[in-house]
Structure formats: C-alpha cells, structure tokens
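Hi everyone, sorry if this is the wrong subforum. Our group has a chain we'd like a structural model of before ordering constructs, and none of us has done structure prediction before. Sequence below.
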Amino acid sequence: MTEKEIKKPTGTRDFFGDLEDLFGQFEKVSQRIAEEYNFERIRTPILEEEDLFNISVGEDTDIVQKEMFSLETKGGSKLTLRPEGTASVVRSYIENDLYKKPQPVKFYYSGPFFRYERPQKGRYRQFHQFGLEVLGIESSALDSQVIKVFHQILNALNIDSFVRVNSLGDAESREEYIKALKSFLKVNRENLCKNCIERMDKNTLRVLDCKEDSCQKVLEKAPKINDYLSQSSKKRFKEVLSFLKGMNIPYEEDPFLVRGLDYYNNTVFEFFCKEEDFALGGGGRYDKLVETLGGRVTPAAGGALGIDRVLEVMSKKGFKKENKEKKIFLAQLGSSAKKKAFDLFEKFREEGIPVYESMGRDSLKSQMSRADKLGADLTLIIGKRECINNEVMIREMKTGKQETVKMDNIVEEIKKRI
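Answer:
Right subforum, don't worry. Here is the predicted structure as tokens:
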C-alpha cells in the first residue's frame, strides 16, 4: 500500500454531481441541434501521429512549440495527444476516401483534448470541445451555417452570446498583409513584448492576439487586413456578414481577430459571452488543409466550443436541466418484496420510464429517506401485504397521500402521472 496519496494530474478534473449533470445537458442539447442541421457524429482517436499537428497546426505556433503532449512508442513511432479536433477530422476524411460521399460531408464531435499550459481559471491541460466541420463545398453560406449552429446551441443553453468576425483573406491577400504588418512591427519593435518580438518573424499574425498593454497600444495604429483583401475575399466576407444579419446573429467586425492555428483563411470567428466577456469558442475556413495533409483540393470550414468555458457560464447562471417528468422511487420490504421489486423495475426500464431504487437497503425508513433526498415525487412501496395482494402502494411525497394499485396496472398508472 502506497504512503503517498495518489491524486489526479495537474490541470485535469473529475466530473460528477452537478457538474456532470451540466455536462450531460450540454451534450444532449449540442447533439440534438447539430443533428437537426444534418451533421453526423465522428469519433477520432485521442492519439494521433505527431506530424499531423506539426504540419496542420504549424511548427511555429505556440501549440506545437510549447503545448503538445507527445510520446514515443517502443517501436519508435511519435504520437501526440490531440491538441485540437479539426486536423483529426481532416485526416479521417482523407484516409477513408470520404470525398467519394455526397458533398459536403458534415461532422460533429465531442471529447477531451490536451495542451500543456499553465492551468488557470477556465483553462485545463485536459479540456473538452464540441466541434463542427463541413468539408467538400466552397460557400460562404456554410461558413455562416457553422456560426448559426453554435449560436443556436448557446441560445438553447440560455447563454447570451455574440460573435466577432474577421477575414484573413486568401493566400495572396494574407501574404501582402503580413509584409505590411511585419514592416510596421519592426519600426515599433522597442515597444513590443518579448513574445511578440519572437513571433514577429516566425508567426507574424499571432502578434495581433497579444493582450499586453504595450502591444495593444502599438496595434491601435497597425495596418488592418481589411485594406489588403482581394476582391473575391471582400465579396465573400460581405456575404458572410449579410447571412449573419439575415439570421439575426449579433456580431462585431474585429479587424485584428486571428486564430492561433496556421491553416485558417478568409472567414474567422470567435464567440463571446456578453455577461462574462470571454471567448467560448471559435473557428473559420480552412480551404488548403486537406491538400496540405495529402488529400485533394477541398474547401472546408469549422470550429469548436470550449465545453469547460460553457459549463462555467451555465453554472454561474444557475442552469438546471429540464426535468418535466416526475421522479419515481421504488422501495421494498422483505425478500419476497425485493424479488417483486426487481421484476417491476425491469418493466419500467423496458417502457423507458426512469425509476430510482435502493435494492441494497432493507430498512424501509432508510429507503424513504433516500427517496426524500433524491427529490422523488412518488414512491412505490412493496411490502409483505402488497406481495400477498399483488398490489403496489403509491405514496405522494409532498402530501403523504397514499393509495394502492394492482401490480399488473402500476406501469400504466404511473404513465398517466408523469
């Protein structure tokens, strides 16, 4: 027996009780809405080849340089715990020849992801995301639909949100903008923080994401990418904004919004909670990623919500899962009653009626106490007399009112009351 107490790793957490209830409600709502928009679930491995992220995310990004959990197998393979979801979906699209399916292919996913960063409020080394990916058709309507689905999910969870949007332009537009931005930053180098000086040459656009006050003051006068967009990129961005306006999605144009991954082009977006003013998730278009990873030229767009952040907002708002049905508890007293209770529990289960029980307890008092703590509306009691008469006693927990019903009729009777 170890003398040291074994605890969960730094930056991870356990989900149970109220937090797990919130997580379950998020999953239920997000899955329902995604499927209403004809997205289908995809599950990809938690472990992927390291090169998948080196190539897709970008070797000069913070994720690849500082945050990936990587390991080497006994056979010498280099694997990484996935730090994000899009690359894995694209890898699956290529590997499984999904371009042969009717396009676009629309996927949603949900699961744990891993990044080595300093744990802080709302940030974990094992975090959870819900993502959407649309591959195979080039259309600003699909950019807008991805944003729409995320907005619908947050609305359904009673989270008041808005989306910040920007266009990074096509490859040509971005190249011209990066040249202009780099020249500007070099002139103002002495006022930039250490990280931005390092990023200036390797990953210039990431400087726009810096939150340091000194850098923010410099960036107020920085060139804006909107002034460098090609005509096709300008047209596309106007279409996206038009769709968002038509769908009544609150949005703000943010000329300095970039994403921390190299594969984005044209539309990028981030969702923010109005009450908390922090990001809940984001995404954008990535028309070159499939080709970069060895597939055909394939336009695509997607994004993800940070589930941990969403749960934090839900918890603060006192969000409670919908529970229109009454809670039923099944209590028994005596060995014969316990056998009857087992049979009755199975009948309820087969009818899809959730019933709580405590078969391990023999004391009726302790079972009633358990029913009260669970907030049961009705308790079904089977004792010696009920066994002899083939009956079940129904007790209304709030009023204490009791009545007996024939065992053969109890399921139908409960159906009427829930």
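For your construct planning: The first helix runs from residue 17 to 36. The mean pLDDT is 91.
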